[in-house]
Amino acid sequence: MMGLDMELDRNVMDGTILERKFKESEQDELYDPEADEKDAEWVSKHLIGERSDAILQCPMCFNTVCYDCQKHVEYSQYRAMFVVRCKILHEQILRVKGTNEVFHPVQCGECGAEIGVYDSDEVYHFFQVVAQPCSKTKEEFSENLLEEEDDS
Which of 80, 86, 88, 101 has the smallest number of CB atoms closer than 10 Å to its CB? Predict the structure, then answer.
């Protein structure tokens, strides 16, 4: 296990002050030299859509809530079917005036910030999120990962 072993030595001058010496032990159980490759492969396989317009994050805690979404043509909002770290408040109902449309508020599953709504067609509509533009296809993303590995 990688850690710091502490040795205490008394100061020779007055015998009361303690000096701390740290030395590194030999092996770190938490370090995985293949972790970056495994993580990149998992993201490429599970999280990057065929063509996502953005990666969405909660504006309060910056946790990612969606990796695959479409930007609305007219409004500054996004829609998605697959999300992570989101909580639908099914007990609360929101209605649009003059229509029969029913929505439920959606919160960030980590901090509870309201970030959008969930409709009766099981589509998430995000309008209070931080969007990082993402114009790469899954294939382009994978190619870039391979190029970066070759460069290192």
Answer: 101
Q: What is the pLDDT of residues 36-51, one digit of tens each?
A: 888 777 766 665 556 6
- Three-state DSSP at 58 gives coil
Other beta carbons within 10 angstroms of residue 52's beta carbon come to 24
Query: Which alpha helices (H) appear in 3-137, and where do they start and end?
Result: 35-46
Closest by CA to 67, choosing from 81, 56, 79, is: 56
CB 66 within 8 A of CB 48: no
Check: pTM over 0.85? Answer yes or no. Answer: no
Separation CA 94–CA 116 (nearest Å): 11
Other C-beta atoms within 10 Å of 102: how many?
13
> What helix, strand, coil percent values describe the chain, rounded to 5?
15, 35, 50
Residue 140 dihedral angles phi and psi, to the nearest 5°: -65, -40
Whether 147 contacts 40, CB under 8 Å: no
Quote the distance between the C-alpha of residue 144 and its chain's center: 20
Are 23 and 5 contacting, i.e. CB atoms less than 8 angstroms apart? yes
